[in-house]
């Protein structure tokens, strides 16, 4: 099944090519193999890290959370709602998407197995 990327053409025009994949009951937004965002219930969330989290919080953004079970506490991921004002400003949205991509790159690098030095 082909994902409808056209709805994001204008928004991501300054960032570049993306792909959508089903996940979390919504869609993951990918730049190459890195997930930089999530779309759940028509709400876009972008990847954040310690460097960019403050920017999201300063804009009143909310973290993406989910519950694994009814009795379990909500789990928060490092994705935050996109500030509403950015949805009408593809140029600035592109800057935020690039920061999300940088956060995804940093997270990926931190997870990469360390090579052992040769003897």
Fold and architecture overview:
This protein is α+β, with helices and mostly antiparallel strands and 119 residues long. It has one domain (5-102): Yope Regulator, Chain: A (2-Layer Sandwich), CATH 3.30.1460. The chain has helices at residues 53-58, 90-111; strands spanning 19-23, 26-31, 34-40, 43-47, 63-66, 75-81. It has a six-stranded antiparallel β-sheet. A hairpin with an 8-residue loop joins strand 5 and strand 6 (75-81). The longest helix is centred in the C-terminal third of the chain and has 22 residues, at 90-111. It is globular. 21% of the residues are buried.
List the helices and strands and how they pair.
Layout: E1 19-23, E2 26-31, E3 34-40, E4 43-47, H1 53-58, E5 63-66, E6 75-81, H2 90-111
Antiparallel strand pairs: 1-2, 2-3, 3-4, 4-6, 5-6
Provide a quick synopsis of the model:
The protein has 119 residues and is α+β, with helices and mostly antiparallel strands. The protein has helices at residues 53-58, 90-111; strands at residues 19-23, 26-31, 34-40, 43-47, 63-66, 75-81. β2 and β3 form a beta hairpin.
